[in-house]
Amino acid sequence: MTAPRLSALVVAHNEERQLAACLERLAFADEIVVVLDRCDDASAAIAGQFTERLIEGAWPLEGDRRNAGIEACAGDWIIEVDADERLPEALAVEIRETIESATPGHFLVPFDNYIGSRLVRHGWGASWGVSAAPRLFSRGAKRWGRQRIHPSLELQGSKRFLKNRMDHYVDRDLSDMLARLDRYTTARAKGLRDQGDIGSFTGNLRRLISRFLKCYVVRRGYREGAWGFVIALMAGLYPLLSYLKARLAEAED
Question: Which residue from 35, 39, 67 is spatially nearest to 51, judged by alpha carbons?
Answer without folding.
Answer: 35
